[in-house]
Every structure is written in C-alpha cells, then in structure tokens.
Amino acid sequence: MFRSVLALLCAAAPVPLLAQSVGPPVDPQVAALRDAALADDYAWDIVEGLTTEVGPRLAGTPAEARARAWAVAKLFGLGFSNIRVEPFELPVWVRGEEKAEIVAPFPQPLVITALGNSGATPPQGIVAEVVGFDSMEEFAASPAEAVRGKIVFVSHAMPANQDGSGYGLFGAPRRQGPTLASKRGAAAIVIRSIGTDHHRNPHTGVQEFADGAAPIPAGALSIPDAEQLQRILKRARGPVTMRLTMTPRNIGVRRSGNVIAELPGRDRAAAPILVGCHLDSWDLGTGAVDDGAGCAIVAAAAKRIMDAGQPLRTIRIVWFGAEEVGLFGGLDYQKKHGAEPHYAVAESDFGADRIWKVDSKLGEARKAEAKALQRALAPLGIVPGSLTEADGSDIGPLIAAGVPAVGLNQDGTRYFDLHHTPDDTLDKIDIAQLRQNVAAWTAMLAILSGGIEPEPKPLQRKRR
Amino acid sequence: MFRSVLALLCAAAPVPLLAQSVGPPVDPQVAALRDAALADDYAWDIVEGLTTEVGPRLAGTPAEARARAWAVAKLFGLGFSNIRVEPFELPVWVRGEEKAEIVAPFPQPLVITALGNSGATPPQGIVAEVVGFDSMEEFAASPAEAVRGKIVFVSHAMPANQDGSGYGLFGAPRRQGPTLASKRGAAAIVIRSIGTDHHRNPHTGVQEFADGAAPIPAGALSIPDAEQLQRILKRARGPVTMRLTMTPRNIGVRRSGNVIAELPGRDRAAAPILVGCHLDSWDLGTGAVDDGAGCAIVAAAAKRIMDAGQPLRTIRIVWFGAEEVGLFGGLDYQKKHGAEPHYAVAESDFGADRIWKVDSKLGEARKAEAKALQRALAPLGIVPGSLTEADGSDIGPLIAAGVPAVGLNQDGTRYFDLHHTPDDTLDKIDIAQLRQNVAAWTAMLAILSGGIEPEPKPLQRKRR
Question: CATH number of A97-250: 3.50.30.30, 3.30.1380.10, 3.90.400.10, 3.30.479.10?
Fold first, then answer.
C-alpha cells in the first residue's frame, strides 16, 4: 500500500523530485564572471553616454546617425573588432506641433502626442465633437455612423504586470484604433496612452493605417488627461468639443543602419552568438530604458568576456537601427544574414529592471546547455522558464526561422510607466538591477560561448 | 531607595506620566462627527468638480473667473449662506511659448517652463553659453563677470520631507536666482525645478525681480532635464550652448476675488471661525493638490457640521483668490477684515495627504480647548504639535496680527513631487487620506464652533 502511494506521488510530480536537486555544478569560471559582473560599471557608462551625448534618436533622423557614430566610437574604444554599420533605408515620419484643448463645455488644455504615422491637421487645428469609448471592443461594436466627422476617443484598462503581456492585450486602441476610425470617417482619433503610469507624459508608438485607410490625425493623451476627458464626457450636459492640432510630416526615405561589432572566438569557423538591442529610440525621451539599457547590457556582458580572455565562439553584438518604427533593422539583418548559421541569438529590449526568468529554445539536443544556463542564473534570483520558447523584437525573424534563442526576461512591472514617453530618461535606471542584468548576460555568454581561454588574448584581438 | 528612584524618574519625565493619560474624554458629538467623516464624499465631489469643470485657473485670468462662478454655485448648492465674492485687482503675467534645446555639443531638447514674472526672449529665442552652479550659494560666491551675457544654470539638492521645510531651505534658486542673474548681466537663468520628483514635468512658481533688477528670461527645467544638463556640462569638452525661447507677457491689471460663504452660528455676535484655502492654481496642472483639495476639505468639513445642526459660532469659508502669484487674496482679506474679530483661523494648503500633526496658537487662556483638539484628533493618527505656533499662506497676515490659529499639518512627503507641475491632477489624490483630512477638520470645527444644536436648523439657514 505505502509503496503504491509513493509510486503514485512520484508519477504525479511534474518533474521527479530527485532530478530537481541534482545536476552538474556551475562552472567556476561562469560563476566567477557572473558574480564579478554585479559590480559592473561598463553598462552604466554606456547608457549614460548614449542618453547624454546623443539623447533622443528617432530612426532615420540625424540624431540616429549621431547615435551610430557614437556607437562605433564607443564599441571601438571598448576593444571590439569587425565594427561596421550595415545601412538600410526607410520612410521617415517626424513629429510637428501637437496640442489639444477642450473648447466646450469646460475649456482647458490636454496633453497629447501624435502616434507614429499619424496624419496631420491643418496648422490651425480642427474642432469637432468627441465621442468616447471605454475600449476598442466598444468602439468596434458601435454603429459605424456614430463617429463620422467626429473625434473618436478610445480608452482601455491596461494594468501593470511583470511580463508585459498587457501590452499585447490592451494595445489595440493604438494598433487598430486609427485604421477603424479612418474607415468610419472620423475626423481624428485620440486614445488613452498605452501605459500604466499616472503622469502627464503621453506614450507615443507606431501604428500603420491598414487596408488602404487614409491617414487621419491620431494622438495619445497622457493617462491623467484621458481620465480627465472621461470625467468631462460624464459631467457634460451636452456635446464635448475639442480643438486638435497636430502637424507631423512624412519626410521621405532616409538612411538608418545596424551597428555590428564582434569579440572574435578562437574557432573562427564556429557559428557566432548574436546579442542584440536597438539603438534608435522614440523622440520624446532619451531612450534610456528603451533601449539604451539593452545596448549597454549586451555590450557590457561581451566586454566582460573580452576582459576574461577569448571565447571559443565569436560573440556578435548588434545594435539594431529603426526598431521602434517597424523593426526595420531586424528585418534588414535577417535579409543579409538570415541564411548564415547562428549558434544562438538573444536580445535585451524590455528596460533595465532585473531579470526574473530565463527562457530558451536551444533544441532537444542542447538541453544540457539550457539546464546549465538555468542553474547558473538561479543565484541571481532568476527562475527557470520555458525550454521551447524564447522571443525578442529585432531577432524575431531569426527565431521564427528556427535560429536557437535565449530569452532573459526582465521584470516589466515599471516598464509601461515609461515606455515611449518623455519620462524615459537615465534617472529611471536602478544601477543594482542594471548590474543584475549584466551578470545574467555575462553568465549566459560564458556558457554559450564555449569556454574562455585567457591566452593569447592580446595577439588575437584586432581592431580596425 | 525605591521611592527615591521613582521620584527621580517622575521628576525627569518631560511631562508627568499621569498627566499624559488623563484629561476629559472627547465629546461624543465631536467623536461621532469625526468618525462619520471618514466616509465623506463631499470633498471628493468638490475637488473632482473644480478640477474637471474648470481645470487650470491662473489668477486674474478668465479661468479663475470661471472658478469663482463655479465656486459660488457649488457653495450655494451645498446650502451655505452669505455667499459673496470680494473682488480685488492684480497685475497679471501669462505664459507664452517655452522651449529649450542644447545646441552644442550634444544637440537635444530639454523640458522647461517659465517662472512667474519671467522676462521674455525674442520670438526666435536666444542662444548663449551655459554656466552651471550646484547651488545658489555657489552662484552667489562666483565672480560677477562669469555670467555676463550667458545663461546661468543653478541646481540644488532639495530632498523630500514630511513638513515641507525643504521648500524654504532649497527654494533660493527660484526666489533669488533670477534677480542675481539679472544684476550680473546674465542673458537668462534656468534652474533645476524646486521639487522632489523625477518626472519630466517642470515646476513653475512665482518670483519677483527685486531691487530694480530688470526682468530676464527665467525658467525651470524638469528635474530629469536639470540632471541631464549637469551631465552634459560634465561630459562636454568645450562650451555648452543652449537655445532658449520663452515668450510670456504681462497683460496688465485684471480682476481676481475671494469667494466667501458662511454657516451662520446661533450667536450672531460671536466672532467667526475662518477656514480657508486658495481657489486659484498654477496654469500647468489642474490644481488638484494645490489647492483644490484644500477648498474641498474645508468646505466638506463645514458642510458636515451644517448637516449635524447649527454651531454656536459662525463658520466662514474663504476660498482665496490669487494666492500663487503673490498672496493677493490673503492681503485683500486682511485689508478688509483684519480689524474684525476672528475666533480662530485655519487654512488647508499643503495637498491632500493625511494630517500628521496638529499645531495651534489659541493663547494661554484657551489651552484646554487646544488640548481637547489634540485629544480629539489622536484617533486619526495625528500627533500633538506646538501650542504656540500655527501657520498658513493666505491667513499669514492675520496670524501675524495675532489672530488665534490652528494648523492641521499634512504629510508633505509627496507634495513637492507635484507642486506647481502639469502633474498636479486629480488622480494624485488618495481618497482615504482626503477623508482623514475631512475628519480632522470636522472635529476641529465641532470643537471650536462651540457645540452644534440639531434644532431648528431648517428655519435658520437662509440662502441668497
């Protein structure tokens, strides 16, 4: 009887209890590199430098070009090799004036910003009645004629959460709202910013007018302003009218590029490990958490491997261009390098707060490597996640094509407080959490790069 | 021996131990009114209404006039008597365009707002070198010729604290900076906002060019932008130049006014109790914590007394005008009513967070009343403070002239995150803390008004 119960218990446990407690110890070199990285200063220096000396860097603009020049100089100064910019082109949209005010019944200004690819109002703005909806679903279900010639206002109820899943679930007003409003003949659309803060900093972000919908003015109110508009609509006894002025422009096709640098491995024939981030930012903030921090983390981790010696496999850093406006950099890299082998790819693009979970998709044959990674990260408070899934923005096309990948998932609870707002600035980065990121990425690179040899480092590292 | 030690202990205690534990019990009527107010809805309704239906209400502007009309209607609707507006005039300064950008070496925009009474730049702005100082003291001690023709930048290190004392200690860059910069021939001055947050919402506030100093452009950078400018100055190898565009205007003398309403007491010959706040706000936010909440708290407390019956003494509500720009309302009230007796005065003008300490200055003869007040507020978590000091902004002149006063001190830890910024909006108010305020003010009014009689309320309350 007792034996049967035990057998049942063992069979019912999702993972055999004994298997959870054993496994090879963490490689001492990996552990030492990981722990030393908790005092890292490289990452802070990179993100401080980029956000201070360049600041905002919208894709395709001179500011992004300055960021590339800064990046090349910085990566060269850190001692990386094979530094190059791979250029590509994209259509560029730039912000103009942007203002909103309630005309009646309660005159007052509201804080707004244009969404990417928004159409423009005339310079003097437009005045129209506001029709409010609590969600994209409510807007979609409303009679089509209800918004003709009017300003659509769509709210939502996005909560903060750890994994950022709310962005997918509640981002519809930005992604689908403008197209639907255009198709229904609305004069314009304003949405509650896709975010989780309560500051008067609106969240911009890209959207595309789909299915031939003509561009109309499309803006995001800061969350306090969106809530104010809801109260105004509720308290008004008659129509609420808004004056909206937004004058963005499409300035044509311009150049962007991916900045690439390498720490060459001992085995030049081996497939490289790609670690990425995106160099461009939205124009409202200085792109500290999105994604200066990511570039800082991956480069700092690679630099720490470099300082320790030479890995077996080449580590390739890619600071992608033009991510925010449509993943242009990732698609360009896929086009140029998608057919080449990659040992693994990973991207840091979810802020600067601590990593809480490690996912990987290295394949059944590399399960031991994935498990070793989980064990090496556990002392950083990182829980084991999936062994069959990992994602990333610019590396998405590579992963979709079957390239092995690692996902070091950051805590996103604060991320959508700052995302795409003027408030995405250096002061929001917690250096202790930034360093935990560097430690995790360093450990990951130490494991996946196949072992670091301290000799003969000086001869093999060529700079150009 | 034992008795001697006990005697010594008793003598050494700052207050006799027994005396701390005795004292008359709290009047059951006071306690009941206090506790019922913890479920108050009047205050929220008032502050939501004012901030939504009027919004920003800069002194002397049509928005402040709309606020007075709103206030008269609201106070009438609540059933108060003797409602009147006492008008006065003041010179009015209004904001224009405001922009700042680093021209070299790291081109990027900065978020700025003009300080009250700032001079203007030409419409196209000015471009000048920035000279930075870490404090007003450092600026004052620098050679006078160091800033001639340049843009002075003054920082400071104001911390958040509970009683707001940092505002006095660290506010010098705003109060004295512009005058000193003008006298030294600076082209303009920009300061680190006098605040404690880290959001890109600059803090405006009044300043006066003193001693014949000519107005120059004077602005406040948001705190992240001020820190960015410090980093830029530190990382630049040569001069840092800024383009500054601010076009505020003085529009001449305009009208403001104090809105006054009363709950008449049974003894019409008795001196009234004045409870105040200020109705005007800065123009950037909707004036929720500064000072819509204050107006809501004092009126809600008076309304709760009204609902319970009729007090012995008249309760006079004063929603002062034009506080932010120079205490004009308080000075006008003092001029018109300073010679009349007031039983006590109190003002709520430090946000909407919980009251943590009660001060009073009722005089030696009314010590029992002051002690009763302390006892009645203790269950709200309010500690006893001074019996010889109390303050307030608009009531300052009355207190200085010797009028008895009560100070219900709010926790100011968050206050300077929001003070004078675009972020001063309704969503920042915590209703539980707002209700604790109403409970404290209700208890205070119940005690000082000399006892409430439930009859014959309907006959004695006249509206006009």
Answer: 3.50.30.30
Which of B210, B206, B153 has its CA nearest to residue B179? Answer: B210
Rounded Cα gap, residues A151 and A131, in angstroms: 6
Distance set, CA A231 to CA B103, B297, B422, B426 (Å): 41, 21, 18, 11
Query: Is there a catalytic annotation at residue A323?
Result: yes
Please give the average per-residue pLDDT across A234-257, as a whole number. 98
Please give the pLDDT value at position B23: 79
Fold of B96-247: Glucose Oxidase; domain 1 (3.50.30)
Q: Say whether pLDDT at A5 is over 50.
A: no
pLDDT at B454: 86
Q: Which CATH number fits domain A24-88+255-460: 1.10.3130.10, 3.90.1580.10, 2.60.15.10, 3.40.630.10?
A: 3.40.630.10
Classify the C-alpha dihedral A266-A267-A268-A271 as positive or negative.
Answer: negative
Q: Which residues of B touch A53 (CB under 8 A)?
A: 105-106, 235
pLDDT at res. B16: 47
Q: Are A69 and A453 in contact (CB under 8 A)?
A: no
**How many Å lie between the alpha carbon of A284 and the closest alpha carbon of chain B?**
9
Q: How far apart are CA B334 and CA B86, in angstroms?
A: 12
pLDDT of residue A457: 47
User: Is residue A234 predicted with pLDDT exceeding 70?
Assistant: yes
Considering only CB atoms, B198 lies closest to which of A109, A223, A427, namely A427
Q: pLDDT for B268-317, tens place per residue? A: 999 999 999 999 999 999 999 999 999 999 999 999 999 999 999 999 99
- Please determine, for residue A399, whether its predicted confidence score (pLDDT) is greater than 90: yes
Global pTM? 0.93
> Is the pLDDT score of B53 beyond 60?
yes
- Tell me the C-alpha distance between A102 and A130, whole Å: 9
Does residue B99 sit in helix, strand or coil? strand
**Fold category of B24-92+252-460 in CATH:** Aminopeptidase (3.40.630)
Could you give the ipTM of this predicted complex? Answer: 0.92
- Rg of chain B taking only CA atoms, in angstroms: 24
For chain A, give every domain's residue range: 24-88+255-460, 97-250
CB-CB under 8 Å, B107 with A426? no
Considering only CA atoms, which of B356, B362, B331, B350 is closest in space to residue B447? B362
* Token couple for B389: 């000091």
**pLDDT (average), residues A87-104:** 98
Choosing from A323, A324, A369, A453, the catalytic residue is: A323
